[in-house]
Write a sequence for this structure.
C-alpha cells in the first residue's frame, strides 16, 4: 500500500473546519483506492503569528520540505489587519511560501455544473451548459515580487511608493508550457491575456508566448487578448475560453471574476505547482481553495467545504498521480451539490451550509 506524505496547513478563519472535512474525505478515499495518509499539520498565517511570532515559521517550512505536497487552508483575518502590511498573513505567509517552493504555476479551474446555472450572476441563456474553463496564472513573478518595491519619502516631504513589474523569458516559457499541457488535456485552445498596448512586460510576454507555442505546440490554437477586454469577455461569454493564460496580477483579478461567474468562491479549488518534483516524481505543489478565510462565518460550522475537498482532489491528481481517486472525489462533490432540490443552493452558499452534513453527504456519494 502506498503512503501519501503531505503537509497540512489549515491556517485561519474557516481553514481549520473545512480542512477537517477534506481530511475525512481523503481518509475514506484512501481505503477505497488503497493508499494511506501520512500528514503533519503546522501553523501558517495569523495563527502562526500568534503561536510563533511569524506568519511562516521555519518549523512550518521544514514540515513542507519533508512532504510531497502541501494541503493549504487559508490565511488572514481582522485580528492581524492592524499589523504593518509586510507582516500581515497574506504577504508574510502566502507570498513567501509560493516563492520558497517556486510555485510558479497556479491552476484555477472555473467550473459551474449545468444544474446550478442559477447560482451564477450571468443570465442562464449565456451559460446554458454551465461553465468549464481554467485559468493558468503565473504566480512567482511580475509586480508581486519585482524589485524595487518600497515606499520612500521624497525631498519635498511627499511620499512615493513603487512596485516593479518584471518578467524574464525563462519565466514566461515555463508557464507557457503549463498552459500547453493544460490545453492538451482539454479543448486545445489557449487565450493569452496581457496589456501589450501599454506594458513592456506584456510586449515580451506576447512575443515569447507566440514563439514558444509555434515551436512547441503548433497544434494548440493560441489567441491573445488585452486584459481589459478579457474581463469584459468573461462576463459576456465565459465559454469562449478554454484555457485562460496570464501573468500574476492579471490572473489574480481575472480568476476572481471567473470565481463569481461560476457561482461561488466556496466551490473553487486551486493548485500551485512548482519547479521541483517530489520524491514520487510528480510536481511538488500547494493546494488551496480560492475563497479565503471568510472570517464572518468562521467557527460556526456553516462554511462550504467543497473548495477544500476539491483542492485535496487536485493534490491527489497532480502531486500523487492518483487520478482515479481524484476523479472519484470530484464526482462525489458534483453529485452532492447537484442532487436534491435545495442542495445546490446550499452548496453555493445561497443559504448557510452545514459543513459537517455536507462532508458526510459527500462521503456517502463516494
Ligand atoms: C489569491 C489571493 C492572494 C494573491 C493574496 C491573498 C496575496 O488573492 O491567491 O488570489 O493575490 O495572490
Ligand atoms: Mn486573489
Amino acid at each position: 500500500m502506498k503512503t501519501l506524505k503531505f503537509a497540512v496547513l489549515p491556517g485561519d478563519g474557516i481553514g481549520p473546519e473545512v480542512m477537517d472535512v477534506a481530511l475525512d474525505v481523503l481518509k475514506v478515499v484512501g481505503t477505497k483506492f488503497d493508499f494511506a495518509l501520512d500528514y503533519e499539520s503546522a501553523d501558517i498565517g495569523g495563527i502562526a503569528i500568534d503561536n510563533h511570532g511569524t506568519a511562516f515559521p521555519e518549523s512550518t517550512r521544514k514540515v513542507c520540505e519533508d512532504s510531497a505536497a502541501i494541503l493549504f487552508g487559508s490565511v488572514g483575518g481582522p485580528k492581524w489587519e492592524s499589523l504593518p502590511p509586510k507582516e500581515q498573513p497574506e504577504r508574510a505567509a502566502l507570498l513567501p511560501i509560493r516563492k520558497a517552493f517556486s510555485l510558479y504555476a497556479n491552476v484555477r479551474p472555473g467550473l459551474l455544473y449545468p444544474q446550478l446555472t442559477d447560482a451564477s450572476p450571468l443570465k442562464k441563456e449565456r451559460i446554458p451548459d454551465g461553465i468549464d474553463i481554467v485559468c493558468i496564472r503565473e504566480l512567482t513573478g511580475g509586480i508581486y515580487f519585482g524589485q524595487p518595491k518600497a515606499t520612500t519619502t521624497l525631498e519635498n516631504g511627499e511620499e512615493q511608493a513603487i512596485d516593479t513589474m518584471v518578467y524574464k523569458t525563462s519565466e514566461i516559457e515555463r508557464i507557457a508550457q503549463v498552459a500547453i499541457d493544460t490545453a492538451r488535456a482539454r479543448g486545445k485552445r489557449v487565450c493569452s491575456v496581457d496589456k501589450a498596448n501599454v506594458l513592456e512586460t506584456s510586449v515580451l510576454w506576447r512575443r515569447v508566448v507566440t514563439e514558444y507555442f509555434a515551436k512547441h505546440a503548433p497544434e494548440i490554437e493560441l489567441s491573445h487578448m488585452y486584459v481589459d477586454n478579457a474581463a469584459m469577455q468573461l462576463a459576456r461569454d465565459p465559454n469562449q475560453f478554454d484555457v485562460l493564460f496570464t501573468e500574476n496580477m492579471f490572473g489574480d483579478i481575472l480568476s476572481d471574476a471567473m470565481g463569481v461567474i461560476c457561482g461561488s468562491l466556496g466551490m473553487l479549488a486551486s493548485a500551485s505547482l512548482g519547479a521541483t518534483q517530489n520524491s514520487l516524481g510528480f510536481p511538488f505543489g500547494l493546494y488551496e481553495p480560492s475563497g479565503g478565510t471568510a472570517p464572518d462565518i468562521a467557527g460556526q460550522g456553516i462554511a462550504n467545504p467543497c473548495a477544500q475537498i476539491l483542492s485535496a482532489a487536485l493534490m491527489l491528481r497532480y502531486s500523487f498521480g492518483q487520478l482515479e481517486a481524484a476523479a472519484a472525489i470530484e464526482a462525489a462533490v458534483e453529485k452532492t451539490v447537484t442532487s436534491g432540490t435545495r442542495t445546490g443552493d446550499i452548496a453555493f452558499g445561497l443559504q448557510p451550509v452545514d459543513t459537517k452534513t455536507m462532508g458526510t453527504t459527500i462521503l456517502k456519494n463516494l
